[in-house]
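Supplementary Note 2. Why include the ligand at all?

Several targets in our set were suspected to adopt different conformations when bound, so apo predictions alone were not considered sufficient. For every target with a known small-molecule partner we therefore ran a joint prediction. The input for copper (II) ion is given below.
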Amino acid sequence: MNTRRAFLTGAAVTMASASVSRHSLAGLPEPVIQASPNTQDPLFPKSGRDYNPVVTLNGWTLPWRMNNGVKEFHLIAEPVVREMAPGFKAHLWGYNGQSPGPTIEVVEGDKVRIFVTNKLPEHTSIHWHGQRLPNGMDGVTGLNQPAIPAGKTFVYEFTARRPGTFMYHPHADEMTQMAMGMMGFWVTHPKEKNPNIDVVNRDFCFLLSSYDIDPGSFTPNPMTMLDFNIWSWNSRVFPGIDTLNVRHNDKVRIRFGNLTMTNHPIHLHGHEFQITGTDGGPTPKANRWYEVTADVAVGQMRQIEFLADEEGDWAFHCHKSHHTMNAMGHDMANLIGVDHRGMAGKIKKLIPDYMVMGERGMADMTEMEMPLPDNTIPMMTGDGPYGSVEMGGMFSVVKVRKNQPHNDYKNSGWFKQPPGTQAFEWKGNKPAENRSNSAGNSSMNRVHPQPEIEVQVKKPASNTQHKH
Ligand SMILES: [Cu+2]
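The joint prediction is reproduced in token form.
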């Protein structure tokens, strides 16, 4: 207890951030609040051991103050308004003005003190996922500590014992509090050269979260267990997720953690990566191999690394297609291939707002002038240089550019493909189609042959010289 008081009132205090005001030095650190959902520049350390900071997609790193050799952070658990995409705001719970909360960056061996002030309408706690720490600091309400009542501040203290990729989240009324967006990233940088941790030029991080917010409403339904309609990275959805802007031949690390209720195969185009670490720590180099998709299960974290040696705008997304399209597909009949000609007109006489959806696939939705309720998530939008990207959820773009300056994270616009390197329309003659007349071979032939089933394939009306 004496040491703790000495930390709080110590005279030899160095400032880590201009936003920590002088009068607060002897007491609780003044909380730093972030109002913007935009990706903030990396926060280079002004005190403590040096390291190469991360960039949090549509997020930021929490400034700290040094107090007698201890890094002090102040988290405020509170209701927030998060712009999840342009035109769509959600009433979430988070930390310091945003959901997710700010990223906490420390160095292996750092003594860390985190003040947690609860401004929620109910009790909370924070669990420091993946950390080695004293049992009483692990944050499980009822098991390791009493809950932090509304209006109170608790203090967590531990040493960041191992380097790696971690996260924090409540361990109190978890179903509600995580469904409402309470989570944050934690990175512990290595204190010295580690044979399993390479130096990289760019280091990005984000958390995967899902929400159930009815169109036209603002607040997630915390009772939902599986049927989520919003799939987000750092509580943002495409086209609201910022791009990952890198310089050609940069070595890039991307860290992500999954706090949704299902797994996500995260897929990068145009490059191969290795999984270099998990929340369990750096992966030994002999146990790495190349992948283009990394599945991250519920409650897991992955860090991937690749050499960005192909210029271009490369898609980076969850490979579950429903997770890149958000509210699509809910309670809708599958109408692909159904011929509606004339039907809409007849129904419109009865139901003036009736519209036909989906008979040629879902892409028509991008052109549909559908009156949406106010505050509805964008659906299959995001205009690229060649039309709609037709996405809506866990989708972003890794932009690799020769002229991207070192340590500069700005978006340089669309990639201009060199002439002759883009897919193009065939305009010559087409050969006649030869249809297979074989039913194929079977390892277990039928004893009594049955007539073949005729399947009619309805093809869209074509305006080409295509002959059947
Ligand atoms: Cu997914």
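The pocket of copper (II) ion is lined by residues 231, 264, 318, 320, 323, 394 (CB under 6 Å). The mean pLDDT is 84. Comparable summaries for the other entries are listed in the accompanying table.
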